Amino acid sequence: MEKVSALKDQGNKALSAGNIDEAVRCYTEALALDPSNHVLFSNRSAAYAKKGNYENALQDACQTIRLKPDWGKGYSRKAAALEFLGRLEDAKATYHEGLRQEPSNQQLKEGLQNIEARLAEKSMMNPFAMPNLYQKLENDSRTRELLSDPSYRELLEQLRNKPSELGTKLQDPRVMTTLSVLLGLNLSEMEEEEEPTPPPPPKPKETQPPPPKEEDLPENKRKALKEKELGNAAYKNKDFATALKHYEEAVKHDPTNMTYISNQAAVFFEKGDFEKCRELCEKAIDVGRENREDYRQIAKALARIGNSYFKQEKYKEAIQYFNKSLTEHRTPDVLKKCQQAEKILKEQEKLAYINPELALEEKNKGNDAFQKGDYPLAMKHYSEAIKRNPNDAKLFSNRAACYTKLLEFQLALKDCEECIKLEPTFIKGYTRKGAALEAMKDYSKAVDAYQKALELDSSSKEATEGMQRCMVSQAMRNDSPEEVKKRAMADPEVQQIMSDPAMRMILEQMQKDPQALSDHLKNPVIAQKIQKLIDVGLIAIR
Questions:
Q1: Residue 313, class by beta-carbon neighbours within 10 Å (0-12 exposed, 13-18 middle, 19+ buried)?
Q2: How far apart are CA 264 and CA 256, in angstroms?
Q3: Residue 210, SS3?
Q4: Using CA atoms, how far apart are residues 397 and 412, in angstroms rounded to an integer?
Q5: What is the pLDDT of residues 219-265, one digit of tens each?
Q6: What pTM does this model have?
Q7: S-S: 325 plus which of 28, 302, 305, 340, CB 3.0-4.6 Å?
Q8: Measured between alpha carbons, how far is 142 from 176 in angstroms, rounded to an integer?
């Protein structure tokens, strides 16, 4: 058994260091010697999950549960593997099963909340994926009879599994009727508000199992607990020397409890001795793993190491340990701190990359390539120059010119907006914005851009000629319906409006009953979307 314990510890260290293959090897060798050890299967499941081998992670998690069905960690491992495999409903059922065995397990509770949130989000994105789909359709007179038709049920399953096909099915009146039921809309009255849903019943208060009474503990643990309490009191009073003394006594009485070592680490953290803090945290983790301590305590020690690096502004190391902590136990505070460290590190790397001299070199290379007509190469150099000097408006203007030459008008427009934001008085930002909009045949907006340029420089030949071209083109415009539709559907905002099932239903109703327009225009959100479709020429009001 000593060899099993040594292999397990070796695997734990390899896993913590990110050496996944070595960790799997150690756990596998240990399992060959002790095939009924549920902790080894659980640890190997975690290693497989880190490696991305979720099928094996699931098999090991199932074996963990078979060996120890009352251990919550096994259910957490299984649910995590199922979630990675996309089997969200099965993961939810596993969390419920685990909570029946261990009702107070916080990780299972949080996992269940997360999976329910993901399922709810998925349901909102695809109304046909809601869990009570058939019940809702059965309860509504408009769809009750349709359910007796096998082809209708087949259609529902098709849209549940492939929501991307909804657009091709909207001509089917059954789909429109079904959407009206699922989205809470009434086709005859076109109410835009969803049916109110009754508030969920209040959750019953959770009852935590009572901690073991002090008199039931062995004498050494009772003494350790008393020392810990004395240490905590001193810690709160910032009397760190006394706190350390009591925590050291607690460790002497009960060396198998990692909490007392973690408390020592907390004292050194407050004193600013981060090296000693980390040393004690690592020791606490080793003791915790040896004695099968609650994974939340392991996570807490790892998070403290991360916080110590964060305090020293060593964000790369902080992120590494925050992620290790989150692997053991996911908590909002640690996740937030990890994201904060990642954001700071990214900003630092971005700032470290800034070099105006190198930016100028890249800009000159871009100008040479542009003059030669090699626009992709020019764009590459301008993009590198922007990374080197992201506050130079002229670089965005130059790249916008490249995008326009490459017919990437939306990207050109975006760069022009950034150019204007950085330097509102730079005339080329407006003329190039006008050129991009003109190429997109959005003449009214192009005229506005050219007008802004003329306000800055009334003698601008480029702006004057651009405005004249747009006014002539607008007056002579005679696009075919196909051209209008093609141009409009290239606009991301129009794509979003037209892919909205509720908006398509409103447009269909307006086509049948033009009087309905005045009702819909009372809703400012819908009115704004309809105005956009009028502006691009997709619909006309007569």
A1: exposed
A2: 15
A3: coil
A4: 8
A5: 888 898 999 999 999 999 999 999 999 999 999 998 889 999 999 99
A6: 0.42
A7: 302
A8: 11
